[in-house]
């Protein structure tokens, strides 16, 4: 495994991270989740991402049980990231990025994860109804209290990232250190909408989600056929990718991409992950896995030496 610095900040993350959206605490039982996490640790993965909204806290609970009840790992050996923003109940204050919701969300995440601190806590979306100063001060206070080490954002527009940095600099507060956007060969908008530029300017690292487009870039859905043991076949896990699996034009491109990867001696998943990691400001590509062999396959992508020729060919395929 290779490790990368989170932007300009000192903490290092594994180039391949493990996420828990739609998997742990939902589509994957704890027994299989434990096998996947144990395999990830053996492969050198130290970065694990979750969020309070993932199955309404069940993903955090699952990770906490596996880390500290089953595997009995040392807390300092992993970097745990979580997030808040989305409604967790019908309570009108149990959502957004108000100081009240951020503080209460962090306290609940700490309990579910069975830890005294969270390494990286991110704003799951931008909240237009809460003043930026309130958001920044809330995170700064939680860092000062030792409950968080770093804070960051996810899916924020460039102008809001710039505003957060400006407010923190003006008030001498701890700045956001990370951004968690969707980023893959099919959806690479952060390269052109100013987000990547704003993050680089601020020294923030990118910890990207869906680098395999929820498994589409693995090539397993060739011809629109959905394997019974795949994410797309699952009622809950596949709910966000039905349109993509039905897009024959896109699937034809993925078939060409898979053939190109195999000619290079790697899998389509590995090449797709290596494509994300070709950018030096991408600190970690957050993957999900329902089987240990997927973890091993994905982790091997960190060792691929990505060349400009690869990039050119992939752009031709997906033009």
How would you describe what is shown here?
With 319 residues, the chain is an alpha/beta fold. It has a single domain (3-212, 279-303), classed as Alpha-Beta Barrel (TIM Barrel), CATH 3.20.20.100. It has 11 helices and 10 strands. The protein has helices at 30-42, 58-70, 99-113, 132-144, 158-171, 195-202, 242-245, 248-264, 268-277, 292-299, 308-317; strands spanning 3-5, 12-14, 16-18, 47-49, 79-84, 118-123, 148-153, 178-179, 205-209, 282-287. It has an 8-stranded parallel sheet with strand order 3-10-9-8-7-6-5-4, covered by helices on one side. The protein has a two-stranded antiparallel ribbon with strand order 1-2. Strand 6 (118-123), helix 4 and strand 7 form a beta-alpha-beta unit. Helix 2 runs parallel beside helix 3, helix 3 runs parallel beside helix 4 (132-144) and helix 8 packs across helix 9 (268-277). The model has no long low-confidence stretch (mean pLDDT 93).
